[in-house]
Specification:
binds adenosine monophosphate, Rossmann fold, 21 helices, seven-stranded parallel β-sheet
């Protein structure tokens, strides 16, 4: 077995590693660190949770320990797909370089250009950036990339998902041909293969896990669920989610709940709080300081449940997440592996449960095919109540007779929130929901573009396309006041049957 002391790292780095409590290098570290120190390009095929961040930060620090930074010419560059991931890499950098005098700058959206400019002007050893923000700085003439000796691309497959590949190619072309490249991706899509063939020179290839395998120490389960009525799906799913969380009791010390759509992230977080489960949302429309605060609280154990979209939670490293709940089946099978990989980290046990509605079954099958494993079906914890719903729903119902501030039950209120939010554009919801944070309206154009790509990618409702609200519109009757004939509240099928 390799030890850190076998890796020829600077003794000051070894001390920092020891203080971080690491005993032995992980396989990606044992493979990548010696090759990188030898000056070779590295192609690491590894997911988060494998220790890949240290596999490039440690050799970088080792190599940067010699030499000095020059004004506006960073000596090394790490590109990450999201702000959170970049911030995480920066934290790793601080941890491992604490006994050395190295300087760094973090170039991410949501932080003022002025502060970042000042750091770059002074000269930094390492620049950690998202591609959009880096190019913004470059285009403003504040930055030269001709001094970059080591360039890291982290989570390249995510860069591809987010439409960043042209930016990455451009950045590669702005750095010297002689640079050393350390390139990491969880999977090797053809486009990624093309980039590595173009920009890496005879790389040492280290693959630590089969593509898209789920960790063995994660207990998986799925609740197959059919809503009693289409417009009740959100409410009933949230009820199942609560029951699942409550059913885990004290074993669920902290959890991440994944939703496919930002609007559901907000609603779920609100709903959980209302029922006494402490939760906060994180997604791309929340401003950066809010996202950072929420993550810090979650990491510090002050927040029990983080409700997240894929993009916001990408690559997040919180070492001890006990549970991951998939409120929705992800539409890309690989996202399932990424999502559940937030639990069961560093050899710990983890548990994950997903809720699957009939229309998600195709995506669900794709997940089982990808992980080559049947996910155990678990009983719907609110089966009983679902039957009750069905019973009640056979009777026609007045939908508008109740006064606004008199919900019949907490769940009725929950349902109201759901249909309200779903029938509006998510912007409007953000503006009007009191504990939902305002979108960062000053985002640079490049980020807006990314979020557009992200929305398309995740099939989020396209604001104003007039298609997403069909089912809800059908159940909302306008202009009848309190005197609506009961047959109008019936669905088309029910009307035909009666
Ligand atoms: P990463 O895959 O880089 O996100 O790292 C996942 C987690 O593993 C992080 O919490 C690291 O602090 C931790 N870690 C990294 N290297 C080691 C190691 N050699 N031994 C134990 N834990 C590690």
């Amino acid at each position: 077995m390799t030890n850190f002391s076998d890796l020829n790292l600077n003794p000051k780095i070894l001390t920092a590693i020891e203080e971080a409590g690491y005993k032995t290098p992980t396989p990606i570290q044992a493979g990548a660190i010696p090759a990188a120190i030898d000056g070779k390009d590295v192609l690491g095929i590894a997911q988060t949770g494998t220790g890949k961040t240290a596999s490039f930060t440690l050799p970088m620090i080792h190599m940067l320990a010699r030499g000095r930074a020059r004004a506006r010419m960073p000596r090394s560059l790490v590109l990450c797909p999201t702000r959170e991931l970049a911030a995480q890499v920066a934290e790793n950098f601080d941890t491992y370089s604490k006994n050395l005098k190295l300087t760094k700058a973090l170039l991410i959206g949501g932080v003022s250009f002025k502060e970042q400019d000042q750091l770059i002007d002074k000269g930094v050893d390492v620049l950690i950036a998202t591609p959009g923000r880096l190019l913004d700085h470059f285009e403003r003439g504040k930055l030269l990339l001709t001094g970059v000796q080591i360039m890291v691309v982290d989570e390249a497959d995510r860069m591809l998902d987010m439409g960043f590949i042209p930016d990455i190619e451009r950045i590669f072309n702005l750095t010297p041909f002689t640079r050393q490249t350390l390139f990491f991706s969880a999977t090797m899509a053809p486009e990624i293969e093309r980039i590595t063939n173009t920009f890496l020179s005879n790389p040492t290839r280290i693959e630590v896990a089969r593509q898209a395998t789920a960790s063995e120490n994660i207990e998986q389960g799925v609740v197959m669920f059919k809503a009693s009525r289409r417009d009740r799906e959100g409410t009933e799913k949230r009820k199942i989610l609560r029951a699942l969380i409550q059913g885990e009791g004290d074993k669920c010390t902290n959890a991440i709940v994944f939703c496919n759509r930002k609007v559901d992230v907000d609603i779920c977080a609100k709903s959980l709080n209302k029922y006494g489960v402490q939760a906060a949302p994180i997604h791309g429309d929340l401003d950066q300081s809010q996202r950072t605060q929420t993550l810090d609280e979650f990491r510090a154990g002050k927040l029990r449940v983080l409700v997240a979209s894929d993009v916001a939670a990408r690559g997040l490293d919180v070492p001890s997440v006990s549970h991951v709940f998939n409120f929705d089946v992800p539409s890309h099978a690989e996202d399932y592996v990424h999502r559940i990989g937030r639990t069961g980290r560093a050899g710990r046990d983890g548990k994950t449960v997903m809720i699957c509605a009939p229309r998600d079954e195709k995506n669900f099958e794709a997940i089982e095919a990808l992980i080559q494993k049947e996910i155990p079906r678990i009983e719907n914890p609110v089966q009983q109540d679902a039957a009750e719903f069905e019973e009640k729903d056979t009777k026609p119902k007045r939908t508008r007779g109740r006064k606004p501030h008199q919900p019949a039950s907490a769940d009725a209120e929950d349902s109201k929130a759901s249909s309200k939010a779903s029938t509006r554009a998510s912007d409007a919801l953000d503006a009007k929901t009191p504990d939902t944070k305002k979108p960062d309206t000053k985002k640079p154009e490049r980020e807006e573009r990314t979020e557009r790509a992200e929305r398309n990618e995740r099939s989020e409702p396209n604001r104003g396309n007039g298609r997403s609200n069909k089912s809800h519109d059908r159940n909302t009757v306008v202009g009848m006041g309190d005197h609506m004939p009961s047959f109008i509240a019936l669905s088309f099928d029910e009307r035909r049957a009666s």
